[in-house]
Fold this protein.
Amino acid sequence: MAEPGKTNDVEEQEELFEHYHFEVDKGQQLLRIDKFLVNRIENISRTKIHDAATAGNILVNNKIVKPNYRVKPNDVISIVMTHPPREIELIPQDIPINIVYEDKDLVVVNKKPGMVVHPGYGNYTGTLVNALAYHFKNLPMFQVDDLRPGLVHRIDKNTSGLLVVAKNELAKNKLAKQFYDHSIQRKYIALVWGVPDAEGVIEGHIGRSLKNRKKMFVFPAGEYGKHAITHYKLIEKLGYVSLVECQLETGRTHQIRVHFQYIKHPLFNDDYYGGDQILKGTTFTKYKQFVQNCFTMLPRHALHAKSLGFIHPFNGKKMFFDSELPEDMTLVIEKWRNYIESRSNT
């Protein structure tokens, strides 16, 4: 029987979604994979199977196969697509969200850390979109079978901060064009390990790691991935960590996180990119305990989407929104300030 599966990382829009999963019986005779799948998936033709294989969406034992591949005993077969199956229902949920601005065309939300932006396998409910679907249940855009209604950009589950969401299709298209043209103004605040230069520009093609698809990687120009540019400036030195302001020129998956790992200043407590280890400082047990306490207070990577600027899609006005740092980041930053002050007084 076919059954829905799930991806390794439901946060990513670019991630592939598993639609069907089969484990072949030990007694299976050699059989072309298109024939095998037609016999096991309802309402599917060999043409659709062939197209899926041609697109590289049929995997056997985690490797892409052609339509003429012959299924063998104990093979593990997956059919994956770039979007989740339509049969997943968007469930409106009465979840508190922080709406900082709203008009008839759009809404700006200050997302709390730990909230996934949109549903996907492994996160059917509890997302920002589930909350918006409840809040906007009377709007046509949030009544269709779409897991990302109104979304023109996203931030990671454990990144906090500002997002703009469209309330109608025309607003969505006009806002999306601004993101495409890189005319949106976005500034982030991050706590990173070490002390980077006073200001700088990080450039590097970002693509999925060839070793682990859950992670992104910076590749040499032209080799793989998409061009990405992050501008940053140092705001405050806090001993073994620093507070930086980042401005995105492009918007790639995990861009700030992977770019700062690339320049050897990963984000504080970023478990994907090495920031959840003690990378700078002393070997004293007291210091190690201090850092572990900070990790406990801030159980996520230290990144906040602080400000957002764009042109209103209809009235042409310049819109700008700014937000305060969330409590977990504020507490840890203050803890580092106190640590540095106590060191200077000894």
Notes: The mean pLDDT is 87. The domain at 87-181 is CATH 3.30.2350.10 (Pseudouridine synthase). The first strand starts at residue 17 and ends at 23. The chain has three domains: 17-81, 87-181, 182-346.
